[in-house]
Write a structure and sequence with these properties.
binds N-carbamoyl-L-aspartate; 15 helices; alpha/beta; 26 strands; 648 residues; Rossmann fold
């Protein structure tokens, strides 16, 4: 029995142009065979499994139809909510298990980068049927197949892509492919839904495409095509035009296109908005008027479907409306893909990405900034992976997630052997590359995080003590007295400290509150830098801390921007619904980036931006016993560029 070689389709870029063309030739043959009613047995004895963690009509059914038409069979978990995924099984476990039941997996998943994970863990080939807002390569095959049949070529075509370009995964795969075929791409995004930077950068870097942003008027006068496109004038649509200057592109087009060959309209991906963002009020509405201008008359109208309100039904009978043909092509094109994977897919070695994988010091791998990245959802077994992003002339270190391609912008870097941290600066780039090779790079979101992990600033100016042990003890006492005075119901109080020094202060506050209120409030700590910050009791009690309806006093040592407090609040809210939250800090040093004002302040110390306030506290709930250790000092940080020649 034939077997599929392990060859996955995660991104449209996994296929070369020649391979795409082979698949199209094969698809045309299969379309003819289907027309004739031929019985095929190419995939006889083989089983395809479709694992869909998101709804689907076209993609799943056309894949299943394609496999049946090839004589193979299908097992399907069309709704993963009825599978073990609903019991919390990880994607990796599911695909490993199903690899033993099927010869080929087709996976759709709501998280960005999920297809790569599935491909890595499955022992049989995996086809990406849509991973979050990232890619949908087989839809692109259907789109290009129909476009090529309608226009006779792909090279040099001008395609206007309209709607939700931010979350539309079909759009992203289509753009990568069109760029390689040397097409001109006009992007017409709905307000706020422009192409994400990572897509633009990939097209620009890999294909050397130029992106110019044009106003509607410029576009009208240059290309003439888009005066036809009906957009409500209130929407701040920002259009862009890509033209290839890639010598490898077959028909490089430096001039603005004279006419449009296709409109690719997409729906607003409401399911990815997560309650925020666009309301769709003035979303693109495409109707017959769009095709009236002379420059758009020859254009076909495409849509990956399903449509909502963006595409008028009046277009359906226009021969230029080809969206149902795109959907119908799903069967022969996916048959051709399966056949190609079965027979031909001996992939030539692809070039390794230019940038090396970043090795971090063990245990200090940062998390991906994209909340929808698969690494954020399957963290039990999946360690985030990053490559260096293009960094020239930037004040942050860009790290690109290997799974979802989003960029993590790192402001503070550390060298694990010397235990020094630095505010990243272009001069450090060479060092950082070396630390990556040695596996000694650490990265931090904030100075506080670096210091929590025991890193010292690279260089600092002279220190000045601003609070001694007695003053700290006095401040804790004063804060506790005020908390007790404000508290209408002392037994409703809960004290939560931010790890680590906020937690020490929280214990001291509880200790001071006990004699004043004749009640010792429960005390917990929250580690805001943990992947999943939870409240952990630090008062020796073992029962679960309940914050519902309680008055929570959040305690931290220093408040600066307010980000730490904001994270602690998020963790608190995930734990329960307190009746009120108050904030107590030992030092308020100003420079807030968020509208947060502490209720209780030990001391307000206006500081300059380059200064650091460092609080040292003896562990434990009594400051008295180790008075010598407790102190607050202030010093100025010397940025590495001040003395870059002396960096290690
Ligand atoms: C698309 C998808 O799921 O990304 N649908 C499809 O597969 N044809 C487009 C969409 O849902 O908008």
């Amino acid at each position: 029995m034939p077997r599929f070689p392990k060859c996955d389709l995660v991104s449209i870029d996994d296929l070369t142009i020649a391979e795409i063309e082979q698949i199209f030739e094969r698809a045309a043959d299969f379309a003819a065979a289907l027309e004739r009613g031929d019985r095929l047995a190419l995939a006889e004895g083989l089983i395809m499994a479709t694992l869909f963690y998101e709804p689907s009509t076209r993609t799943r059914l056309s894949f299943e139809s394609a496999m049946h038409r090839l004589g193979g069979s299908v097992i399907s978990s069309a709704d993963m909510h009825s599978s073990s995924a609903a019991k919390g099984e990880t994607l990796a476990d599911t695909v490993r298990v199903v690899s033993a039941y099927a010869d080929l997996l087709v996976v759709r998943h709501p998280n960005d980068g999920a297809a790569r994970v599935a491909a890595e863990y499955a022992s049989v080939p995996v086809i990406n049927a849509g991973d979050g807002s990232r890619e949908h390569p087989t839809q692109t095959l259907c789109d290009l197949y129909i476009l090529q049949r309608k226009k006779g070529r792909l090279e040099g075509l001008t395609v206007a892509i309209c709607g939700d370009l931010k979350y539309g995964r079909t759009v992203h795969s289509l753009i990568y492919a069109l760029a390689r075929f040397g097409a001109n791409i006009v992007t017409v995004p709905y307000g706020g839904m422009a192409l994400p930077d990572y897509v633009l950068e990939r097209v620009a870097a890999e294909r050397r495409y130029k992106l110019s942003t044009l106003t509607i008027d410029e576009l009208k006068s240059q290309s003439g095509g888009l005066d036809a496109l009906y957009l409500t004038p209130s929407a701040p649509h920002q259009m862009a035009l890509f033209t290839g200057d890639d010598p490898l592109a077959r028909v490089p087009t430096a001039r603005p296109p004279a006419a449009l060959d296709a409109f690719y309209v997409t729906r607003l991906q409401r399911e990815r908005l997560n309650g925020g963002g666009a309301d769709g009020q003035d979303y693109v509405h495409f109707d017959a008027r769009a095709l009236r201008s002379t420059r758009a008359q020859g254009a076909v109208v495409m849509h990956p479907l399903p449509r909502t309100d963006e595409l008028a039904y009046e277009l359906d009978n226009d021969p230029r409306a080809v969206y149902f043909e795109q959907a119908a092509a799903g069967v022969p094109v996916r048959m051709a893909l399966i056949a190609w994977m079965l027979e031909g897919a001996r992939r030539a070695a692809r070039p390794e990405p230019a940038q090396p994988l970043v090795r971090f010091k063990t245990g200090s791998t940062p998390r991906c900034p994209n909340a929808l990245c698969i690494t954020r959802h399957e963290s039990a077994y999946l360690t985030p992976r990053f490559r260096l992003a293009h960094n020239a002339g930037r004040a942050v270190l860009g790290l690109r997630c290997e799974f979802c391609e989003r960029e993590l912008k790192v402001e503070y870097v550390g060298h694990a052997s010397s235990r020094r941290y630095y505010h990243f600066d272009e001069n450090l780039y060479g060092y950082v590359r070396r630390w990556i090779e040695d596996g000694t790079l650490a990265v931090f979101e904030t100075v506080k995080e670096a210091e929590e992990q025991g890193y010292e600033p690279y260089r600092r100016g002279p220190q000045r003590e601003i609070m001694n042990a007695a003053e700290i003890a006095h401040a804790c006492q004063a804060i506790s007295t005020q908390i007790a005075a404000d508290s209408a119901e002392p037994t409703a109080l809960v004290v939560v400290g931010v790890v680590s020094r906020g937690a020490i202060l929280a214990m001291r506050v509880c200790e001071a509150l006990a004699p004043i209120m004749n009640f010792r409030p429960p005390c917990a700590a929250v580690d805001v830098y943990a992947d999943d910050p939870v409240l952990r009791r630090i008062d020796g009690a073992t029962d679960n801390l309940c914050v519902d309806g309680r008055e929570v006093v959040l305690v931290d040592d220093v408040i600066n921007s307010g980000w730490t407090v904001q994270r602690a609040m998020t963790a608190l809210w995930r734990h329960g619904r307190p009746a009120a939250v108050k904030l107590a800090v030992l030092i308020d040093r100003g420079h807030r980036a968020l509208p947060i004002r502490p209720n209780y302040i030990g001391r307000s110390i206006p500081t300059a931006r380059g200064e650091r306030v460092s609080v040292r506290l003896a562990p434990g709930d009594t400051g008295d016993a180790q008075k010598g250790v407790d102190r607050v000092v202030i010093y100025s940080l010397l940025e590495p560029h001040v003395a870059s020649e002396q960096a290690p």
